[in-house]
Amino acid sequence: MSLHDYLYYVILPILAISSLVVFIRFVKGPTIVDRVVALDLIITLGIGEIAIYSIINNKPTFLDIATILALIAFLGTVAFAFYLEKRNKKDD
């Protein structure tokens, strides 16, 4: 089994099933924190799919896009955590 077969038949189905499960959590999440974590995980799975696409099609430029998307997702999560911290201090 070559690397491309492994990516097509093992990794991509796992990412697809994971995306479906996380999207269900995103829709059903009882709190906003669950939804933010699910959104962060969806972005992370998207980064994995971009990386696989880059490997399969031999286009390393897409890895730069994945890196930028990871930085934006990280900053969004940090900003949300900062917002929650400020909101909790106001409630006290």
List keywords for this structure.
elongated; single chain; 92 residues; 3 helices; 90% helix; mainly alpha
Write the layout of secondary structure elements.
Layout: H1 3-28, H2 32-57, H3 61-91
Helix pairs in contact: 1-2, 2-3
Structural description of this entry:
90% of the residues lie in helices and 0% in strands. With 92 residues, the chain is mainly α. It has one domain. The N and C termini lie far apart (59 Å).
Strand content: under 5%
Low-pLDDT segments: none
C-alpha geometry: elongated
* Element pattern in H and E: HHH
Over the alpha carbons, how many angstroms does the gyration radius reach?
17 Å
N- and C-termini, Cα separation: 59 Å
Q: Could you say how many structural domains there are in total? A: 1
- Count of DSSP H/I helices: 3
The whole-number mean of residue pLDDT values reads 91
Strand segment tally: 0
Helix fraction, binned, reads over 70%
Q: Outline the biggest β-sheet.
A: none
Instruction: Give the class from helix and strand content and strand pairing.
Output: mainly alpha
